[in-house]
UniProtKB/TrEMBL annotation:
<dbReference type="InterPro" id="IPR000086">
    <property type="entry name" value="NUDIX_hydrolase_dom"/>
</dbReference>
<dbReference type="InterPro" id="IPR051325">
    <property type="entry name" value="Nudix_hydrolase_domain"/>
</dbReference>
<dbReference type="InterPro" id="IPR015797">
    <property type="entry name" value="NUDIX_hydrolase-like_dom_sf"/>
</dbReference>
<keyword id="KW-0378">Hydrolase</keyword>
<dbReference type="GO" id="GO:0006167">
    <property type="term" value="P:AMP biosynthetic process"/>
</dbReference>
<dbReference type="Pfam" id="PF00293">
    <property type="entry name" value="NUDIX"/>
</dbReference>
<protein>
    <submittedName>
        <fullName>NUDIX domain-containing protein</fullName>
    </submittedName>
</protein>
<feature type="domain" description="Nudix hydrolase">
    <location>
        <begin position="1"/>
        <end position="151"/>
    </location>
</feature>
<dbReference type="GO" id="GO:0004081">
    <property type="term" value="F:bis(5'-nucleosyl)-tetraphosphatase (asymmetrical) activity"/>
</dbReference>
<dbReference type="GO" id="GO:0006754">
    <property type="term" value="P:ATP biosynthetic process"/>
</dbReference>
C-alpha cells in the first residue's frame, strides 16, 4: 500500500499570490534549494485518522505552531513518481506570520556508516514565496498542487 501524507498549503493574496513552503532539514538538503522544499506535511494511516486532522498535526509537528484557525478546502491528492501520495488542503493564510517556528526533529545515523546518531530539524526554515518560486523550489511531486491552486485562484478572482 502506498505511503500517504497530508499537508497544508497556506496562501495569501499579495500583489502576486504567495504560498508558505518549508525547506527540508538534515544534511542531505542543507546546500540545496531547487527541489528541496515541501508543503508542511507528514504521513498518516488512512482510515485511522482524518486527512485534515493529520495535516493539522503535521503542520504543528514540523513548524512548532498551529495552523491558522480558518476554513480549509481539499485541493487534491497528488502522486509522486515513487507512488507516495499527498493530500493537500488549502486555506487563506493572510495574517499568518512566517516566524516564531520551533522545528520538529528527527534522528539518523550521521555521518553515514559511522555508528553515531545525530538530530536534525525536519525542516530548517519556512517562507512565503510566489507561486513561480514555489514551482521551482518544491519537490517535483508537489508542484502540480501549485498549478491547481493557481487555477482555483484564477477562477475565483477571474
Amino acid at each position: 500500500m502506498p505511503v500517504t501524507s497530508a499537508g497544508i498549503l497556506l496562501y495569501r493574496l499579495q500583489s502576486e499570490p504567495e504560498v508558505l513552503i518549508a525547506h527540508m532539514g538534515g544534511p542531505y538538503w542543507a546546500k540545496k534549494d531547487s527541489g528541496a522544499w515541501s508543503i508542511p506535511k507528514g504521513e498518516y494511516v488512512e482510515g485511522a485518522e482524518a486527512a485534515l486532522d493529520a495535516a493539522h498535526r503535521e503542520f504543528h509537528e514540523e513548524l512548532g505552531v498551529a495552523a491558522p484557525d480558518v476554513p480549509y478546502a481539499e485541493l487534491g491528492t497528488y502522486t509522486y513518481s515513487s507512488g507516495k501520495r499527498i493530500v493537500v488542503f488549502v486555506a487563506d493564510g493572510a495574517g499568518f506570520e512566517a516566524s516564531g517556528f520551533t522545528f520538529g526533529e528527527f534522528e539518523m545515523e550521521w555521518p553515514p556508516r559511522s555508528g553515531r546518531t545525530a538530530s536534525f530539524p525536519e525542516v530548517d526554515r519556512a517562507e512565503w514565496v510566489t507561486l513561480d518560486a514555489a514551482r521551482e523550489r518544491l519537490v517535483k511531486g508537489q508542484r502540480s498542487a501549485i498549478d491547481a491552486l493557481q487555477s482555483q485562484l484564477d477562477a475565483a478572482l477571474g
